[in-house]
Structures are given as structure tokens and as C-alpha cells.
Amino acid sequence: MVDRADIHGKPLIAALLISLALGNLLILAYDASWPVRCVAGLCVSYLVLSLFLHPRQSLASDPFAMHVVARVMVLFGYVLSCLYVSSGVVRINDDLILLALGIGLGSVLLADLLVLFVPLPPDARLAGDSTSLEARLFLLLFAAGWLWRAYAFSRGLLYGTFIGTRLELTGASNIMGTLNSLATLGMWGCVVFARRSRWTIPLVAMEVIWLLATGSKGAVLYILVPFLMVLFQRGTIRINGRFVAGMGAILVLFMATFVVVHGYRVAVAKQVAGAGYAGFEASEALTTIEVDPNDFVLIGKSLTERLNLAERYLLILERDEAGASDPWYGQSYLTAMLWFVPRAVWPGKPSMSLGRWFATEYLGWGEESRSEAGVTVWGEGFLNFRIIGAILVPGLWIAFLQLIYSLALRRGRWGILFVASGYLVMMNSLSANVALPIAGLAQLLLILLFLRVLIVAMRRAARRLEVRPVG
Questions:
Q1: What's the pLDDT tens digit per position in 340-380?
Q2: Domain boundaries, the chain
Q3: How far apart are CA 463 and CA 351, in angstroms?
Q4: How many CA atoms lie within 13 A of 444 on its CB side?
Q5: Among 13, 128, 154, 184, whose Cα sits 20 to 30 Å from the Cα of 375?
Q6: Helices (H) and strands (E) in the chain, counts
Q7: Cα–Cα nearest to 403, from 81, 145, 66
Q8: d(CA 218, CA 248)
Q9: Residues 114 and 54: beta-carbon distance below 8 Å
Q10: pLDDT at residue 140, as a whole number
Q11: Is residue 84 within 8 Å of 302, Cβ to Cβ?
């Protein structure tokens, strides 16, 4: 780990000046009103300065900490989103945008205050564990997951988020997703428990390729960022110039694969539309990818839409600020306690996701569409407790994510495995309602607890066999 004393002095001053300059240049790049620009500039300055000067978890000490990731999401997905809306993309009053910026800043201030009370994880987090049995078990899970993928692919049951599958049409998409995730969990287990991280690189590469093949535009970030987090916790990498250069290379690779996957998704959709699932051939789709240089514009547009958290919240704020609907008073959070109840047992179980409701109610998407849109933690907080909820809920949630991160890292390799496997869920949780990430993390925790108990039982059985007397 990097000591806080190492980040003071000229490198810190240079980082502060560069960060503030870039932040204010981003603000000037938007054609927003000057009041919105000034308040957004205040928000950017606070986010950047406090990121480096926070007394508990600074950027230099752990760039993968959840409160750091949340601040990046707030910067790009909330503050810059407010500037994007104020530029005239959506007709929303500037007074509401200024109110939203104040609420966003208030939620981050609350999170910063609460994080002061979150315990710091120890420096030595991977020492002293016996890992050979765990590594073999997770390698077996990885192999089992890939055998299922090979079978599903050969049967035309392509798993992906951009296209329907036969199993989805028969209502068994959850089964398919669970079996598909075996390989991902196995990969993370190998990365964490392997004595040498080098031999796990092919497994990581296979996982990235699979996500790209199934149409995930963010595959590079989804896998490589948690992978770097694990290497950081293992002490394999440090925060220096090479780390910054590596992150830059990952961003370049992400942008390149983003455009290629977009073309691949279009090619797959055309092929399935013409020949159906039975006639799907991945090799043919790969050879018919068309990449237009203008498609690189899609990167900014798609990322803006994906990270446009403030616009979704502003739509709720605009409609409901005058009391157009009654507050929910926490009802939407209660669904997080129902995730373990099978829908076969309770057919009328309320949906944990508010995405479909928000898409039809606020965005006007048709009922025939199966797509969802994240309501955001700010939007859900406002729907439940109005402005107070829009400040309290995100602040509490960001601090809670940091608490999960810190406590998990205190549990050694198994805790790091939990963080790596759930990193994407936690990273994207600000864009959804709270029940979804709670359910996802709870399910992951139960799976890891089962595997942990299995490992302990296997070790005890092995010891009994070793001490059993001969004859």
C-alpha cells in the first residue's frame, strides 16, 4: 500500500492543478447557462480536491475504493449530466438543475462525513492463506462454466444482453445467466487464490473475449478494472506513472472495442432477423462487421446516455416537486428483503427493479419494450422522502458501499473475491434503485459462504484421511 506521506508535495500539487484545470475545461465545453456552470464548477472543485485531501481514503492510497469510484460516477454521471441537460438537450428549468446540483453535492458531503467512521482495511490482506485447494476448486468452476457456454453456443442459445435467446423466450433466462456466471466466478477465484497472478491472465482474456462475443460494449472495463483492483490488493502494482499509462491504455482499448462491438451487434441482429437463431453463425457475423470512422462519435453519445444520471432524476424532480404524487415513505426499499422468495412460490411478488416502471411512466417507452432505465438512487430517494431523501439516501448508500469494501478486504482472500465478483454491481448501483444491488450482493455472499464451507469440509476430510491408522 502507498503511505499518505508519499502523496504530499509537488506530485500532489501538480495532480490538483491538472485535475482542476481539466474539470473546468469540461465545464466550459458545455453550452450551459452561467449560473449552472458556476455551481457545477464548485461541485467539480470539491469532488477533485476532496478526492486527494480526504483524511481517510485518498486517491493515492486506494483508487479502487468504493467512495472514490462513486465520486467519479457523480462527477461524470451527475455534475456533467446537469451541464448536458442545461445545454438544451432536454427542456428543464435551470432552477431545477441548480437544485439538483446542490442536492448532489449535499449527498457527497454527507458520504464524506460518514466515511470518516468507516474502518480502514489492513495493509497485509493476502498473507498466510493456504490457497491450492481453493484455486483448484475455482478452476473447476471456470471449466464447468465454459463447458456450459460451449453447449449453449452450439445450440444457438447465445447469452447476451443485446439479443433475445431461446432460453429467454421460454422463461429460463435466470437459469442460463446463473450457469453462465459460473465461469466468471471461477475466473475471479483463480485470480484471487492463485499463488502467481501471471497464469490467470489467459483466463481473464477468455472472459473479456466472451463478454465481447456476447455483445457487451463495456467488457474491457467490466473485467480489467476489478482485475487491477485485485492486483493492487496483492501488492503486484503500485500507483505510479506506469499505472496511469496502463489505465490510459485500457481506456483506448475500451473505445476501440466499443465501436467494434457496436458493429458486431448490428451484424448479429441482421443475421438473426434473416436466418433465425438456428441459422446463427458467429464466424459469419464477425466477417460482416462494418465499422464507420464516424461511429467513434457513438462512444461519447452512448456514454453520455448511460451515465446521464442527473437527467433521469431531473425528470422525476420536475414532475413531482409540486406534489404531483404522494411520497412512498420507504416502500420501494422493502422489496430488497424479498429477493430470496421464488416467484413460483409468490407469483404476485413485487418487482425489485423500478426500471421498467420508470421507463414507461417517465420516459414514455412502449409497453411492448422489455428495456429498462435506471431510476438512480437520487430519484428513488426523492420518490420516497422528497428532497431530504434525495440527499440522505445517496449519501448513506455511498458510505455503505465503502463500508462493504473495507470490511470485505479485512477478510483476506475471500473478502477480495467478494469485492472483485461484486465490483460491477457496486460500481453501477448509483444508476439503479437500491433493492437490485442489495439482492445481487446478498446472493453472491451466500454463494461464497457455501463454497467456503465446502472448502473447510474438504480440508477436514483430507486431514482425517491423513491421520487414519493403517490396518
A1: 777 777 777 777 888 888 888 888 777 666 667 889 999 99
A2: 132-304
A3: 47
A4: 27
A5: 184
A6: 19, 0
A7: 66
A8: 15
A9: no
A10: 94
A11: no
